Amino acid sequence: MKIIFFSPQCNDGNRQLNKLINNFVKIYGLEIYRNVDNLVNRLCSPEEESTIVVLFTINESTFQELIVIREYLLNSKVILVIHDRKKRTLTNAHKLRPRFITYSDADISNISKVINKMISIETKPAAVISQKKKNNSEI
């Protein structure tokens, strides 16, 4: 499992998010991208592992850039942190097909829980298959 973090600049909100995500770095690695072009280049690189992409928008301009590149995110599990609470922004946010949406001014500690859940779901099938093989060999 790879975790990709996108934010064009560092501010208080994504410092908190960075702290949360850094807990996952030791096990899964974390890649940080500050501009959309570099993010697209990374997303175009084929990966065998599942990828969680955390997108942190800081303004409408950044958000619209992400909407434009949404087809590159189709094979990733997207967590979206949006910059405002406008109905139009939330409606457009769904174009990115996120698994989870939150706001930059909200408590972002839930993102850690969401990532944990995504990771546990991703690794659970392998554990179940392994257990079934073990049970079958005992018969």
Question: Would you spell out the secondary-structure blueprint of this structure?
Answer:
Layout (H helix, E strand, L loop, with lengths): L1 E5 L5 H17 L1 E4 L2 H9 L6 E6 L3 H9 L8 E6 L4 H7 L6 E4 L5 H30 L1
Parallel strand pairs: 1-2, 1-3, 3-4, 4-5
Give a summary of the structure in a few sentences.
By secondary structure, the chain is α/β, with parallel strands linked by helices. The protein is built from five helices and five strands, in the order βαβαβαβαβα.
Could you characterize the architecture of this molecule?
With 139 residues, the protein is α/β, with parallel strands linked by helices. It has a single domain (2-138), classed as Rossmann fold (3-Layer(aba) Sandwich), CATH 3.40.50. 52% of the residues lie in helices and 18% in strands. The chain has five helices and five strands; from the N terminus they run βαβαβαβαβα. Strands 2-1-3-4-5 form a five-stranded parallel sheet, with helices on both faces. Helix 1 links the parallel strand 1 (2-6) and strand 2. The longest helix has 30 residues, at 109-138. The model has no long low-confidence stretch (mean pLDDT 82).
